Fold these 3 entries.
Entry 1:
Amino acid sequence: MNQHENYQKLLSIQVDNALLGTSAAVLGWDQEVMMPKGAIGWRARQLGLLAGLHHERSTTEEIGELLQACEEDQVLTGAPRSAEATNLRMWRRDYDKATRLPASLVKEIAETRSHAQSAWAKAKEENDFSVFLPFLEKNLELARREAECYGPPEGGELWDALADNYEPGTRAKDLTELFTPLRDRLTALIQEVQSKGSPPDTSFNEVPVPKPRQDKLGRLVLEAMGYDFCHGRLDESAHPFTTSFSPADVRITTRYQEGLFLDALGSTMHEGGHALYEQGLPMEHAGTPMAEAASLGIHESQSRLWENMVGHSRSFWGWCTPLVHDILGGGLTGYDAETFYKGSNRVQPSLIRVEADEATYNLHIIVRFEIELMLFRDQLQPKDLPAAWNKLYRDLLGVEVPNDSKGCLQDIHWSLGSFGYFPTYTLGNLYAAQFFAKMEEDLGPQDQAFAKGEFAPLLGWLREKIHSQGSRYFPGELCEQVTGKKLSPEPFFTYLEKKVRETNRL
Ligand code: ZN
């Protein structure tokens, strides 16, 4: 076979695997949105079979041989940002990761995680950390073994090998450099809000609004953002999420609570931001890394940008308030744009990450990041997790944790063995602010456009600079490519401080 044929053969195998993987994703979507509860047993078997087939077909020796043959060809790899070179680089990454784990470890991880998840759910419900502890210990041991199979990067540590699964190229050392100044400045700002600010009115978020009206508003906002309903749909699920089968079919879900219209709108815009990224990936490369997101952190930058930087802006509320009056009506007609704007930016330290505001959110993440590092560096024993957690919440957020259900048991991640995942949320916030600042530098301030419900210039910029790039760059490289600078906490802090001072009257 010549090199061209090798690449074509590899491409066809990989696209078939993507077709298989995304078929499983359709079943996953169905399970969350449509499936009757009683069908879970058979569905688990369907998904188990597909996952097994996918793993088997992604780790064949043939793929290894084709990869090696292609990599030796300068025509394919000479221009490192070409589609071919990008695909080969990312396929190599995935192949090495998948084949470095012995099948016995993969199986042990899968089995342990499903037990750990139910133990976690029970521990959380009964507020009993001791139910989860042995599973946390086992998950940590398995995660260490997994990380050892990948090996730490040069000059890095074990934790880095796991974080790299979510955020290619990320390291604890670099994150500590980013997060330390952020931690210090955020705690100072939040303390100032607590002691000197006056909290904005948020009573509008208690006004009951029927679900169909919230749904209508959400769809209208999504359309204005540029979400394409010809290639997507919006449904309801217990936990909002976005799933993509290809750029031609990107679905989102949201959650409505009658008294919390702002939360539903926020989560619709958040998932809408994820979905715009997926819809903007190049369809002609579907099924290959060129049509995949650069990382979870970059993904989160897109959701946060729309949810917070657009959805919590004064100009957005200038446009959206008449729609709220018109569509949601009822008791909300008495609130003006300024009230919605200020109320959506209220800063208040709390216990639960997923309910946190923009200012305190990153401290919730920093707590988890610091704890993970202590666990992996053997500076903390799993049994002492609750005490360490409660101390960090006291030190960073100034809140007392009343019990473990509202403390270290609140998130599902560690029960799934997802160590190294949490920082992607904060990276998303930092990337979002740096991208947004650069966008305004390129296009000029967008306030007037947002105030008219015009988001096309913003979306066009994101499409060109970020979405169309797929996995061409690692996240850190993409940031430098787009903004001309390394990622820094500065743009985020500048953006946040200005808004917080304004809305919490400092
Ligand atoms: Zn998200």
Entry 2:
Amino acid sequence: MKIELIKGDITKMEVDVIVNAANSSLLGGGGVDGAIHRAGGKAILEACQAIRNKQGKCKTGEAVITTAGDLPAEKVIHTVGPVYNGGKREEKEKELLANCYTNCLKLAEENNLISIAFPNISTGIYRFPKAMATEIAINAVKQHKSKIIETVVFVCFDDENHECYKSLLNG
Ligand code: ADP
């Protein structure tokens, strides 16, 4: 798998699938979730509602797939990142964040999607320290050997995340 880094808006990405940092309700929220639903139109929300009706909420670390509506991508994978609290919970929170990346890659493979773009899951409203989240994301992706996925793009929206990824990917 080739790993790429860009700074920008994930809703503009022309890849097979973009990942949404959703919340467990799957019914939309702020940050990147709000941006994806705004740009993709109501088809995404309707698909999320159908999943909700079938399976209930999406658990932290897990992922579901829907249409991408009006977006240039074909599909959206919605994953629920952990909220960062640190302390005794930190190890579990780190494991759940890694699970998000791994489960998204698995779901992309099951759907024969060969290019995938990730936002910086849990580093906004869910307040994961950005350097820590960067290391977890890159390690999870590098550890996942795929025969299907060819390109993984990390899409950073803010400077701090972009700097973290630049230094870890180039260092
Ligand atoms: P979480 O609740 O998982 O923390 P947020 O959406 O609050 O999710 O933040 C996750 C990351 O998404 C943040 O680093 C934020 O800068 C970034 N982000 C916000 N809007 C966009 C966008 N349009 N494209 C890509 N990343 C975005």
Entry 3:
Amino acid sequence: MIKADVLLGLQWGDEGKGKIVDVLTPDYDIIARFQGGPNAGHTLEFNGIKHVLHTIPSGIFHPTAINVVGNGVVIDPVIFRKEIEALQKLGVDVQSKLLISKRAHLILPTHRLIDAASEASKGKNKIGSTLKGIGPTYMDKTGRNGLRVGDIETDEFMEKYSALVEKHKQLLSFHQYDYNLSELEPTWFEAIEFLKQLQFVETEHYLNNAIKNGKRVLAEGAQGSLLDIDFGSYPFVTSSNTICAGACNGLGIAPNRIGKVIGIFKAYCTRVGSGPFPTELDNETGEKMRQIGREFGSTTGRARRTGWLDLPALKYAVMVNGVTELMMMKADVLSDFQTIEVCTHYSYRGKTIDYLPYNIDPAYLKPVTVKLKGWNKDLTQIDNKAKFPIELMEYIRFVETAVETPISIVSVGPDRTQTIRM
Ligand code: GDP
Ligand code: IMO
Ligand code: MG
């Protein structure tokens, strides 16, 4: 039986998942997002145009692939509508190629307000949330209060909506948070009406039948493993399981139906929002990396924090995901560095360790790095691995050996074509 493959980020998000899903889509019949929501920003570049997708899977530009928004995703109807309308303007036939799980939860205007109120009340301990209402929506899901896509088609929709909003109003008054809901609700309800033209499906049946019938499915992750609610740098994480197991929960595909697990990582590290970041370069080198890599958030425009590649963290992500192959992104960004550092160990409470521990707070943990010679050569025009500089090949081998997993693709620029198969 052909199994479903999973593609996900191994760091703190923004590894380049959107680009690679787009590159791999010709090999698949179905692309399915399994968690997260409009906190994600997945960038695709081809024919000189750049597209940023938030909720819609990154296979949408291919003529035949079906794109599934799984039950594990949370949908903001307003953002979703904007995304669809932008695609329709480009001539993409979204209606026939997009299936939405009836079990996916809806982000209400009040979820966004609660996100903002909760962040404001945390002061300097704030998560650095994208303020898209992600945390409050998943809280209502696990708290068994949530509103789902399938509810839109029922007579009780308004009743359920109002009951949930009443709960939210109490929470907002507890936070003493000022807001004007009447400004937000009309657009939200218009977007709900808009959604009704789309296909609401029991995607768990659809996907399992597809797999049974030999269709090739690629599950697309959002965020990254170090933002996972269980295995990330808690509490500075997102509110879903971003790891491979999240694809099973978020799509209704059993673990024994999962085939390849493709882990995407940058040749260095970035993080946007708060929380510990062991290899962070809060200096000129980090600023240089940010400028060359254009490390500014695809969703919020915030500057991303930058740092060297962290191998113990990468090994951890490979372990919890069962990664079978790696893809290294943004190698071109390191071309201007004479020396490239890589974190191989940590100094943790006076001991040297080679694994990611429970506590990665800078007060307890410092990175131990090795210095490697940079390649100092532009990579963006290279079209074949035979043309890779020797130092880059050494860098690739160094990582593969450390994490005991092969690298199958090296990306040398944002465009579809700047993708080198190993
Ligand atoms: P995602 O959230 O994992 O899909 O990643 P984002 O789209 O948020 O961020 C990745 C950014 O890097 C985007 O602006 C991409 O266009 C860009 N990008 C992807 N791969 C490469 C690459 O190999 N080199 C360079 N320079 N940019 C890349
Ligand atoms: P993609 O899919 C990078 C970060 C936020 C914040 C934390 C919690 O594009 O890789 P949330 O809005 O989920 O409550 O924010 O997680 N974060 C991301 N960082 N890429 C993302 O998605 C992210 N989605 C959330 O910055 O630190
Ligand atoms: Mg992103």
